[in-house]
Amino acid sequence: MPVVYRIIREKFRDQSLSAEGSRLYGSRWNPKGTGILYTTSTPELGLVETLAHAPAVRYEDLPTYWLSSISIPENIRFYGREDMPDFWQDKNYERTQKWLNSWLKNPDVLAIAVPSVIVPFSHNILLHPKHPLFAQIQLISQEKIPIDRRLWRVED
User: Fold this and answer.
1) Rounded Cα gap, residues 17 and 39, in angstroms
2) Which pick of 27, 119, 131, 139 has the fewest CB atoms within 10 Å?
3) What is the pLDDT of residues 28-80, one digit of tens each?
4) 111-115 vs 76-78, strand pairing mode
5) Are 122 and 116 a contacting pair, CB within 8 Å?
């Protein structure tokens, strides 16, 4: 079974398999009201994605993050950059939230792999909690992920 990764704040560590945050707030690939679990193909991509969305605070005030390794069934539809719509990197999520609408409403596969907007050579793996195979995903491990000071450029 493939392994995907998710980085979450310490206060949500016990909710690493929850799609509640994306359901409440929406994100690039899902509108509010429809939750999906955002994961990445590598821990490194997860770190880059996390830092890109981290709060603009002093390094010392960054939250503690945890890396979750998650085993998933081999039921993934992959999209390469050449498969993506012209608007897939838009800062406005309105169109990207609609692009996967049929999968969001009727998940025929557990997971959709889409290129990361930040690192388009790697994939974000979107997991649908309403797919029957979602019950088979397993949290393998969790560990605190260090954030090297050189990666954080917010002025103190």
Assistant:
1) 10
2) 139
3) 999 999 999 999 999 999 999 998 888 788 888 888 999 999 999 999 999 99
4) parallel
5) yes
